[in-house]
């Protein structure tokens, strides 16, 4: 039998509306599926969604913590870098001060050495001058003794007498030409 034949005679069936038994069976199936979905699937889906949202929130919190740690590490690195630069500047300044101090000490040592060399040279020149003066006195004395012996006509070979005559002669010479002897 067809559904059209079950209808009373003269009644026409609307093709857009399903039969009553189809609506009932569809409603029962829908209710069973809805209850199964509501009881079984929806809690599992909600559980998965909650786990994912917690994982995402945990990931965000963890990312924020990692970002905070990274910011802290960056700040620490920048602080250490600034400290290192300050330390390098301080060491550079100390090295410059030490260099200036060493240069000053070396200048003082060089000046002291120059003064010592100059003093030694003056002393050596004075000693050589005295030695030359003594040698010159001896030669002049010998010449003066020879000359005096010839002039006087007697021998002045006695050392004491010769020394006295020579000393007197040199004193007379120095008295006559003091500027000439001193300039030499």
What keywords describe this structure?
184 residues; mainly alpha; disordered N terminus; CF(0); coiled coil; ion transport
Summarize the structure in words.
Mean pLDDT is 84; it is low at 1-5. The termini are far apart. The longest helix is centred in the middle third of the chain and has 133 residues, at 20-152. Helix 2 (20-152) crosses helix 3 (159-176). Helices cover 88% and strands 0% of the residues. The protein is rod-shaped and about 200 Å long. The chain has one domain. The chain contains 4 helices and no strands. The chain has 184 residues and is an all-alpha fold.
What percentage of residues falls in helices of 4 or more residues?
over 70%
Biggest sheet descriptor: none
How many helices in DSSP terms? 4
Strand content: under 5%
Determine the structural class based on helices, strands and strand pairing.
mainly alpha
- Unreliable residue stretches: 1-5
Report the order of strands and helices: HHHH
Gross morphology: rod-shaped
Rounded to an integer, what's the Rg over CA atoms?
66 Å
How many domains make up the 3D coordinates?
Answer: 1
> Termini, distance in Å?
166 Å
Number of strands: 0
Mean pLDDT: 84
List the helices and strands and how they pair.
Layout lengths: L2 H4 L13 H133 L6 H18 L1 H6 L1
Helix pairs in contact: 2-3
């Amino acid at each position: 039998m067809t559904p059209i034949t079950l209808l009373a005679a003269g009644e026409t069936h609307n093709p857009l509306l399903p039969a009553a038994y189809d609506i009932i069976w569809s409603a029962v199936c829908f209710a069973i599926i809805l209850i199964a979905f509501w009881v079984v699937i929806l809690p599992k889906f909600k559980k998965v969604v909650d786990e994912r949202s917690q994982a995402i929130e945990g990931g965000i919190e963890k990312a924020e913590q990692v970002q905070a740690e990274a910011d802290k590490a960056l700040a620490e690195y920048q602080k250490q870098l600034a400290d290192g630069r300050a330390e390098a500047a301080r060491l550079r300044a100390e090295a410059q001060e030490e260099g200036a101090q060493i240069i000053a000490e070396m200048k003082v040592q060089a000046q002291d050495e120059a003064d010592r060399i100059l003093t030694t040279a003056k002393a050596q020149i004075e000693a050589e001058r005295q030695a030359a003066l003594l040698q010159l006195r001896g030669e002049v004395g010998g010449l003066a003794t020879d000359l005096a012996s010839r002039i006087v006509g007697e021998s002045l070979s006695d050392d004491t007498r010769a020394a006295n005559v020579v000393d007197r002669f040199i004193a007379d010479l120095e008295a006559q030409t003091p500027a000439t002897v001193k300039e030499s």
